[in-house]
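Page 37, continued from 36.
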């Protein structure tokens, strides 16, 4: 029996060929479908043999344009000049695979930042058949990463410079971030507090309340602290309890609530407020005393004249009676002489009262003029910002030690500042200037100038007289008191029209001498 020709071997080869063709087609579709990657093959000399659609999209050359050409075409001129294209192939051949980020060239000459992978392709015997290259354009990615990095550095810079302390914690109150300002405020380092409950920064009696707030919020969603600003107390590392202003914000990251607390130390503010209240009380008291003193001085001057006249009339009557020898007239003369003595005594009392009011007995001390002005303006300028007033302060250097009664000079400043603010109530351009400057030798001049409605010349002449006023509801004592105080210091006070409208008030006070320190 003769066997026919076998069909098994040819059929197997045909099936294998079809299978390889299908696999090649599928591989080609897979490679072409990766449009975000440039995937291409090089021969041993670095010439392009396979070119996918992603390479066409990213680099700009079509397959017919690039196949057979050297891959050095994709390198910047400086890299080509340095021999980098061949060096990359040599390194890949030795190492098997290399990866790097570098600049590449498109067909239109533009450059882009690329993530490049070069793989040496060898057959089963180890013979080098060529190279596979995968290139991805990462220009936008790197730009985005750089932008994120810049934002992070910017945010860190802001957080490092923000004067308020910032604490970040999770919904259990566990601290995850502690700013530099918080380190300064509380005295802890970040490493000392991260991972611990924020209650450690609170007085003992407040810790349970805080944990209760967080638990209630987690269970009910009812806010007690979050989203609002309130005052509270905090605890420093050294055990000191101090007042704070607290604001808490909330956000959600990856499904977890994150709370950020901003803390401001109120110690200095509350001390300043207390000092202002004390200063205000002092100034009110001085204002009352000065007002009464001015009135007493005026009355003393007026009373002294009739007392002098009474004395003169009595002495004239005594002279007219003379030595009459009549007992009755002698008794009258003696009585008139006693009345004249009492009149002279009353005049002496009045003169002493006037001397006291004029400042013969004062609490003069060496004071810092800059601090004195700062304290007075902090009170006198209340409401100035809300009234739209632009305030300029110019304190001359080297003129800061003066011999004054601090409270009285502050009373003068407050009076002048309040008058200036009131004079600008109806004008559009509101500017207030407070300045110190050298005056005659041994004296410093203080100026309060405004851009208000100004003062008529005929009123300015009597401005510092008692009961002289430009206000409908004024008593006319404020500027009179100011003059009394300044003159008691040996200085003078005056007003003049300011350039561009308004009024400038000036007064002088004495500088402290070196001998005053003794």
């Amino acid at each position: 029996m003769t066997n026919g020709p076998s069909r098994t071997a040819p059929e197997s080869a045909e099936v294998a060929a079809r299978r390889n063709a299908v696999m090649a087609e599928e591989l080609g579709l897979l490679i072409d479908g990766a449009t975000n990657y440039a995937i291409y093959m090089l021969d041993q000399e670095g010439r392009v043999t396979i070119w996918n659609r992603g390479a066409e999209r990213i680099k700009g050359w079509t397959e017919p344009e690039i196949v057979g050409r050297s891959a050095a075409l994709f390198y910047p001129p400086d890299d080509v000049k340095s021999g980098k294209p061949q060096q990359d192939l040599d390194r890949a051949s030795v190492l098997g695979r290399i990866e790097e980020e570098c600049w590449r060239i498109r067909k239109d000459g533009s450059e882009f930042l690329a993530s490049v992978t070069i793989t040496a392709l060898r057959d089963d015997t180890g013979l080098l058949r060529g190279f596979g290259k995968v290139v991805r354009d990462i220009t936008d990615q790197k730009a985005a990463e750089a932008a994120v990095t810049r934002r992070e550095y910017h945010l860190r810079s802001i957080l490092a410079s923000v004067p308020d302390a910032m604490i970040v914690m999770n919904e259990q109150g566990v601290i995850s971030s502690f700013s530099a300002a918080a380190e300064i405020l509380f005295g802890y380092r970040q490493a000392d507090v991260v991972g611990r409950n924020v209650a450690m920064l609170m007085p003992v009696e407040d810790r349970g309340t805080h944990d209760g707030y967080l638990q209630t919020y987690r269970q009910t969603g009812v806010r007690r602290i979050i989203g609002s600003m309130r005052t509270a107390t905090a605890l420093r590392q050294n055990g000191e309890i101090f007042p704070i202003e607290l604001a808490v914000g909330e956000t959600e990251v990856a499904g977890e609530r994150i709370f950020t607390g901003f803390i401001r130390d109120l110690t200095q503010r509350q001390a300043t407020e207390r000092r202002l209240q004390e200063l205000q009380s002092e100034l009110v008291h001085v204002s009352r005393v000065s007002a009464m003193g001015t009135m007493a001085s005026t009355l003393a001057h007026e009373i002294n004249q009739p007392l002098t006249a009474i004395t003169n009339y009595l002495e004239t009557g005594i002279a007219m009676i003379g030595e009459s020898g009549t007992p009755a007239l002698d008794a009258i003369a003696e009585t008139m002489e006693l009345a004249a003595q009492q009149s002279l005594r009353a005049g002496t009392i009045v003169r002493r009262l006037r001397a006291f009011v004029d400042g013969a007995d004062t609490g003069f001390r060496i004071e810092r003029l800059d601090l004195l002005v700062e304290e007075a303006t902090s009170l006198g300028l209340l409401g100035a910002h809300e009234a739209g007033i632009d305030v300029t302060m110019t304190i001359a250097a080297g003129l800061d030690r003066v011999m004054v009664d601090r409270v009285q000079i502050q009373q003068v400043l407050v009076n002048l500042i309040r008058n200036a603010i009131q004079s600008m109530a109806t004008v559009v351009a509101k500017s207030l200037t407070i300045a110190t400057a050298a005056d005659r030798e041994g004296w410093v001049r203080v100026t309060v100038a405004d851009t208000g409605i100004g003062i008529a010349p005929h009123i300015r002449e009597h401005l510092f007289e008692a009961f002289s006023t430009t206000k409908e509801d004024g008593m006319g004592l404020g500027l009179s008191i100011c003059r009394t105080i300044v003159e008691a210091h040996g200085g003078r006070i005056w007003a003049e029209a300011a350039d561009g409208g308004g009024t400038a008030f000036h007064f002088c006070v004495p500088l402290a001498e070196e001998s005053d320190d003794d």
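The first strand starts at residue 38 and ends at 42. Flag for discussion at group meeting. The chain has a mean pLDDT of 80.
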